[in-house]
Design a protein that fits this description.
single chain; alpha+beta; Ribosomal Protein S8, Chain: A, domain 1; 2 domains; 6 helices
């Protein structure tokens, strides 16, 4: 069963900021129930499944940052909160252990400012194993040469900078925040298809909700 969120007793509706904050909390709670869909995420592949045959099966809307509202129109018209930060972190961790990564050489290499650091060679080697080919251009600049194909449609330059900055401090990808990234609904749709709803539930990146859950948040009532 899903853990209940505690709300303050207050008959007045909360501000938009407060509502979004609580939506984020609701999204992070663990969903233990299995989805009615049988499709599960395949560890060895990022390819799309046939779970949703078209984007018309889903309604996807960005609520705030990396939190998306997903409505499944194909069968049940269920609604979910999706945390794409968790999905993106999981993709990167799988890239770290994936033997054969399909990469995409950039027609125009992407330079970005980044001061030289200690042990940089080891860091760039680790990123290269993930499909991010990066070279040092000068003392102040790195250049991105190729990326994993899965990141073709997102802001891969900011993605790369975020990964490097997180690695420098933490030496791994756990807890990395991609709140500054922007990507279109097609990327979100493709990842929902790749993982399947049950796979996203198991990853704890997806949270189903009902109208009563929203009423609790809006009116701050149990």
């Amino acid at each position: 069963s899903t853990e209940e969120i505690e709300f303050e007793n207050n008959d007045q509706p909360h501000s938009t900021e407060s509502i979004l904050e609580k939506l984020g909390r609701l999204n992070h709670q663990t969903e233990h129930k299995e989805s009615s869909f049988g499709n599960t995420y395949q560890n060895s592949s990022f390819g799309q499944s046939n779970l949703f045959k078209s984007k018309a099966d889903l309604q996807i809307e960005n609520l705030a940052g990396m939190i998306y509202l997903v409505k499944d129109n194909s069968v049940t018209e269920k609604r979910y909160f999706l945390n794409m930060n968790i999905v993106l972190e999981d993709i990167l961790k799988k890239l770290q252990t994936k033997e054969h990564i399909q990469t995409l050489p950039l027609l125009i290499s992407e330079p970005f400012k980044f001061e030289k650091i200690t042990n940089e060679a080891e860091l760039l080697l680790e990123l290269n194993k993930m499909g991010l080919e990066i070279e040092r251009l000068d003392e102040h600049t790195l250049v991105l040469r190729s990326i994993p194909e899965i990141f073709e449609e997102i802001d891969y330059t900011n993605l790369t900078k975020t990964i490097i900055e997180h690695f420098i401090v933490n030496n791994d990808l756990t807890g990395v925040s991609f709140s500054n990234l922007k990507f279109d609904q097609r990327f979100v749709f493709e990842q929902i298809n790749a993982y399947g709803l049950s796979g996203l539930l198991e990853l704890h990146s997806l949270k189903s909700f009902k109208e009563k859950d929203l009423l609790k948040i809006f009116y701050a009532k149990k």
